[in-house]
């Protein structure tokens, strides 16, 4: 695996790959890799001749009181994992090379960026959209792979790609879960053993909603109320949001005639976790899960 640490080097190596006509896939990450990330890499490996991953803890997407400085950084073990998945290129730039002094350009996807996590984390999606646009410009991949766990991020990136006519296919991989259902996340590493047990309540709440929807309940308010009841069974878990939205626009939907996304964010101790499920309405297949934009 070749490791490149400046945008210029990465750009020129990727340009050479494109000139050779090989299909190039990009898996953008912030490191602290787990099986969820590796499922993206495997998907990229299956669909592309050359696989690039990036590891960059993007300061721009963290708010002033968020966990940028304590975000887990496990570069050596990440490299071993990527090598064992036969990743060809790793782009691991320093913040100063991605955001040189004097940089003044940001990418903002209006409206969607203020919904779900964007409402709780102002500026977060501006940071994501800016760094993803930069990564796409540097690498110019044919395909880029993202996890369904960050459903709001997926909606923002898909809108960005449409609006800016970016020539990249976005592939969305299903959520990878622990044996008890907890969605894999780099932030799970922050949980104490007791919090780790409590955290599974997010999955149980989503499951309850899914079961009720499968039995024919179509009213979102009713489903949200039932989901919140499950979260309340774990009094030390503090809910941020529990919503049922259109997966493309993230706008609330009042009933489930069409495909909908049920999404939750909650604080378990000092750790904010997110999770979601796609509910398919009558006669509609859920987009996103393993789907392509
Ligand atoms: O999902 C992530 O890990 C990050 O938000 C991303 C897409 C790598 C941008 O920093």
Helix content: 25-40%
Main beta sheet: 6 strands, parallel
Instruction: Give the low-confidence spans.
Output: 282-293
What is the overall pLDDT average? 95
Supply the CATH class of the largest domain: Alpha Beta
Percentage of residues in strands: 15-25%
The CATH architecture designation of the largest domain is 3-Layer(aba) Sandwich
CATH homologous superfamily of the largest domain - what is it? Answer: HUPs
Overall shape: it is globular
Sequence of strands across the biggest β-sheet? 1-4-3-2-5-6
For this structure, the quaternary state is: single chain
Task: List the bound ligands.
Answer: pantoate
Query: How many domain regions?
Result: 2
Counting DSSP E segments of at least 2 residues, the number of strands comes to 9
Distance N to C terminus: 29 Å
Overview of the structural elements:
- This protein has 293 residues and is an alpha/beta fold.
- The chain has two domains: 2-173, Rossmann fold (3-Layer(aba) Sandwich), CATH 3.40.50; 186-286, 2-Layer Sandwich (Pantoate--beta-alanine Ligase, Chain: A,domain 2), CATH 3.30.1300.10.
- It is built from ten helices and nine strands.
- It has helices at residues 7-19, 35-47, 75-84, 95-98, 117-120, 124-139, 151-163, 193-198, 201-214, 220-232; strands at residues 2-4, 24-29, 50-55, 89-91, 143-147, 169-173, 237-245, 260-268, 271-279.
- It has a six-stranded parallel beta sheet, with helices on both faces. Strands 7-8-9 form a three-stranded antiparallel beta sheet.
- The longest helix has 16 residues, at 124-139.
- The model is unreliable at 282-293 (pLDDT under 50).
- The protein binds pantoate.
- Pantoate (PAF) binds at residues 28-30, 58, 61, 128, 131-132, 150, 153.
């Amino acid at each position: 695996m070749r490791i490149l640490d400046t945008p210029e080097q990465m750009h020129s190596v990727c340009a050479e790959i494109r000139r050779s006509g090989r299909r190039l896939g990009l898996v953008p990450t912030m490191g602290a890799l787990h099986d969820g990330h590796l499922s993206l890499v495997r998907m990229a490996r299956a669909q592309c001749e050359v696989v690039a991953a990036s590891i960059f803890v993007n300061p721009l997407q963290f708010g002033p009181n968020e966990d940028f400085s304590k975000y887990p950084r496990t570069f050596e073990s990440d490299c071993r994992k990527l090598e064992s998945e036969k990743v060809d290129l790793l782009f691991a730039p320093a913040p100063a090379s991605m955001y040189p002094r004097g940089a003044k350009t940001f990418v903002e996807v209006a409206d969607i960026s203020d919904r779900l996590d964007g409402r709780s984390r102002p500026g977060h999606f501006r940071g994501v959209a800016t760094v993803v646009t930069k990564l796409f410009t540097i690498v110019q991949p044919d395909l880029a792979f993202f996890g369904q766990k960050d459903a709001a991020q997926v909606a923002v990136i898909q809108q960005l790609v449409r609006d800016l006519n970016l020539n990249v296919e976005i592939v969305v991989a299903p959520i990878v879960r622990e044996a008890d259902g907890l969605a894999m996340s780099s932030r799970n590493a922050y949980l104490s053993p007791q919090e780790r047990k409590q955290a599974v309540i997010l999955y149980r709440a989503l499951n309850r909603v899914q079961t009720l929807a499968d039995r024919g309940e179509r009213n979102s308010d009713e489903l949200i109320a039932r989901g919140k009841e499950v979260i309340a069974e774990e009094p030390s878990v503090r809910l941020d949001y529990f919503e049922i939205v259109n997966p493309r626009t993230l706008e609330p939907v009042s009933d489930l005639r069409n495909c909908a996304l049920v999404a939750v964010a909650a604080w378990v101790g000092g750790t904010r976790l997110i999770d979601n499920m796609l509910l398919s309405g009558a006669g509609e297949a859920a987009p996103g899960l393993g789907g392509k934009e």
